[in-house]
Design brief:
Elements lengths: L2 H7 L2 H18 L12 H6 L5 H7 L8 H22 L4 H22 L5 H15 L4 E3 L5 E3 L3 H13 L3 H22 L10 H6 L39
Antiparallel strand pairs: 1-2
Helix pairs in contact: 2-5, 4-6, 5-7, 6-7, 6-9, 7-8, 7-9, 8-9
Protein name: Derlin
Family: Belongs to the derlin family.
Keywords: Endoplasmic reticulum, Membrane, Transmembrane, Transmembrane helix
């Protein structure tokens, strides 16, 4: 498969994310965009209202000879785990995946402002990877030097490596952000019987309509442990069971 065919095979929002990240990072690397206007700064956002930094810090990575390999690893994770999540879990509802990216991006910005992190690519990549890993806990993934382990451990391995070698909390914050989404989207409503707080707004559904047909749902949300609804005393047959799952 040539590069053009591979690029076009990426699902829509993964392709947009990868393109924006690579393009903006390269433009800053070659001095065509000023890096000093791209990073996240709590003071500049809150006191000088430089709100664009909340967006640019999600896509710009400070490329250099020392950070190039790290950047390529992040891009690889985007093409692997974001693509898998979008294709498998959200193939029929691209607006749901768009909403996932928006929520994790907002959480990344908040985390960056709290922990004074300038660039948010690591945090966003780990959050998306964490969500995929939670939906595919038992899948065995390959890592460096031929090591293999269950997907549920992958985000923690990434966070440990970053903490040890770079002294950064970004991946740990990314795990927290990913878990917030996973808990509110899957665990709380489906496993614990709570309200669905992360339903995709209809505005996004109209902007990016659902896709009919296709195959989705390879990632498996947790099974419900909520108590079954009581049967109505007025009907000897109880309540019918709806076919399929939302």
């Amino acid at each position: 498969m040539d590069a053009g065919t591979w690029y076009k095979s990426l699902p829509r929002f993964t392709r947009y994310w990868l393109t924006a990240t690579v393009a903006l990072s390269l433009l800053c690397r070659f001095g065509l965009l000023p890096l000093e206007y791209m990073y996240l700064s709590r003071d500049l956002v809150l006191t000088r209202l430089q709100l664009w930094r909340c967006v640019t810090s999600l896509f710009v990575f400070p490329l250099s000879g020392a950070t190039g390999f790290h950047f390529l690893i992040n891009c690889y994770f985007i093409t692997q785990y974001s693509a898998r999540l979008e294709k498998d879990q959200y193939a029929r509802s691209p607006a749901d995946y768009m909403y996932l990216l928006i929520i994790t991006a907002v959480l990344a910005v908040l985390g960056g402002m709290v922990f004074n992190l300038y660039f948010l690519m690591d945090m966003l990549v780990v959050a998306i990877t964490y969500i995929w890993c939670q939906l595919n806990k038992e899948v065995v993934v390959s890592f460096w030097f031929g090591s293999r382990f269950k997907a549920m451990y992958l985000p923690w391995v990434l966070a440990g490596i970053e903490l040890i070698f770079h002294g950064s909390l970004a991946s740990l914050v990314g795990i927290f952000n990913g878990h917030v989404y996973y808990f509110l989207k899957f665990q709380y409503p489906q496993e614990l019987g709570g309200n669905a707080f992360l339903e995709t707004p209809q505005m996004l559904k109209r902007l990016v309509p659902d896709v009919s047909g296709g195959i989705s749902g390879f990632g498996v949300p947790p099974e419900s442990r909520a108590p079954p609804p009581r049967q109505s005393a007025s009907s000897p047959w109880g309540r019918g069971m709806a076919l399929g799952r939302n």
